[in-house]
Amino acid sequence: MHTTPPKDEQFLADFAQMSANGATPGGGVERQAASEGDILNRRWFSGVLEGFGAEVGYDKIGNQYGLFEFVPGAPYVAVGSHLDSQPLAGRFDGAYGVLAGAHAAARVAAKVESGELAPRFNVAVVNWFNEEGSRFAPSMMGSSVFTSALSLQDARAATDLQGTTVGEAIDGAKWAPLIDAPKVATYAEIHVEQGRGLENNGNQIGLVTATWGAKKFVATVRGEQGHTGSTMMRDRRDALFGASLIIAAVRRLTEEFAEGRLQASVSQLTLEPNSPVTIAREVQFNVDLRSPDSDVLAAARTRLDEIVAAAASEADVEVELSLTHEWALNPYPEAGVELARECAQELGLTHQEIYTVAGHDSTNMKEHYPTVMLFVPSVEGISHNEAEYTTDEDCLAGLALLTRVVEQLAAGKLAPDKR
Amino acid sequence: MHTTPPKDEQFLADFAQMSANGATPGGGVERQAASEGDILNRRWFSGVLEGFGAEVGYDKIGNQYGLFEFVPGAPYVAVGSHLDSQPLAGRFDGAYGVLAGAHAAARVAAKVESGELAPRFNVAVVNWFNEEGSRFAPSMMGSSVFTSALSLQDARAATDLQGTTVGEAIDGAKWAPLIDAPKVATYAEIHVEQGRGLENNGNQIGLVTATWGAKKFVATVRGEQGHTGSTMMRDRRDALFGASLIIAAVRRLTEEFAEGRLQASVSQLTLEPNSPVTIAREVQFNVDLRSPDSDVLAAARTRLDEIVAAAASEADVEVELSLTHEWALNPYPEAGVELARECAQELGLTHQEIYTVAGHDSTNMKEHYPTVMLFVPSVEGISHNEAEYTTDEDCLAGLALLTRVVEQLAAGKLAPDKR
Fold it and tell me: Residues of B with CB below 8 A from A234's CB?
């Protein structure tokens, strides 16, 4: 094990090195779950963990762990996020948090070794599998299986648009050795904000107190194939026309609420037969509604049903709307927020409480473990885009705070007295 | 060569047999250009032609010919249509016309052999490659190359959505022998109407006098990737929202004109990155405008520009609209219509003049050769759909008329006096 903790310069150098794995010409990365870029990056990250003295292993859903065992047999403080990305994504989302977790763990390990810290728990760095959900739905897959929100079997059966299953993709990646998932005591995660909240207020750190509520749907529009030229307009049952009415109306729906109260999106769509001369018989797309206010979310859901009914009538099509997942406005544990606040104050970092609109692996973990969720600023809030950016200074401030939080957690903070 | 002409029962049996090639559970066929179903069906059709005594060959763009040579060295009356289909298509579109062409040619050959007909020209049955354009654009590919409207090189370079080129698909099909395309004197084609015109008037035959004008575009909407949850609505540049505004408005545009004056469709669409949690950065789709009236078409084109500008503004995206092909209201040669009318009267078939909304291979051929284009009724006008249907009686009436027309053409009708 290293005796000197890795320095800030080392973190920045490692981050630059990591950003070359699956790099895109536009300055971003493309590392969808179990893709070539993700596989390459995980191999590289395994070397980083081993260089810090951690034991590396993978569980059955492809979560990657770097284990620092200080107290034989004790549970672990888990710290991490996800290295997978969206297509043509930014280089910070998830990846910053995983690398910061590894450096924080290595710093804590150095303190344990030097006798400055008496640990009650071990520390596990975790890189959750397929947080993004762009290649394989649902998102947050690795942490969902870890927390039993999703069965391993269902997760491994999920397919990408080419028909490859998660199971095939993971087996093909040959991640080894296979280990049992570590027993966890507490969890910490740091992530870029993906919004302008911290930037607007000039703060370095966000203490995440809640996740926005969300309702996610799949809509299937069923019409009838016909010739784009010769089928008379009044005879048409055009599934793409029906879909376009819904997509446009879902976006305009956000204007019925005060600014910032409702986010509504359609971003994934497939159509059959997708021919230039044949009217679409079937279109399938997602609908994603999010709000910090349960009443707004309920009202939006009612309006969505009205939008669907109006579109079905105008386009003479059938529309099936299935709720695929939802969560209410979902608070993070107060004790975690308080611990993070104390640590930030101690380090002299400017901070504020903040909501997260996006889901994170901590959204799963906080249901089962005392959890701390931290944000660092995103310039202009740009996310899922190659132009995503967080300054070195903000990255390092976040790393310092995360290190302090993991130190406290390793010492036993937040954990139930009896284990 | 056969001495007895094939009977009506034989035609119906052959049609039923052909409909088993690439058959779908819903009663249709799936025989996209150079797909498994198309390859199987062409092999089967080759046997039919050879059974009638024709020599079978293929040209470099995969057009399939069945040659009946009566007058060594003389040009050919070409008669045919296309055997390829849309995905989940009906079994009549194109295929009826090719099989009717083969039976008509065999009947004419029997008359030549028995001395009842003194031919001036030979007869070639033709199955044009890739009329549909669903797998490889543009449509009417084989007849476009035949008439030099499209270069062989450009046609062979066209790719499907999997990146396979036409050249690779044709070479992979191993159609043989390769022959020079026959020299053509005149052309005849019969097709199902794909509309309700004949059915509404209770007529058996349509004498096609013109093709509707058309303007076809590809629209590319460029926005910006972002997180579907955390990107604030006012910051979004959502390409799919922009596209949906255009698609909905294009359809509603038809209501600004008198019924039946404008057909407008969007039926093919791709989006990037097509992820459930990332706003689309780019959407590409076709826009297909058709009208029997050039003024309507010009007005619709102007309105389309306005629709695009309004959508670009509302969604804060850029839209590029490229005209990919267009044709004005396009008459068929009068002499061909008159010949068909005389033959229909002679056979006692009820008939009317009619426009075609859809393009056909005859749309290409009529620019270079005296051409006859015939329609038989489609029940309810259903087209590009497994439920497409034409009665046996109407199929046989069309075959009888086509036979009479080919006979007249083989005897020298419509051809310039000097060749």
Answer: 259
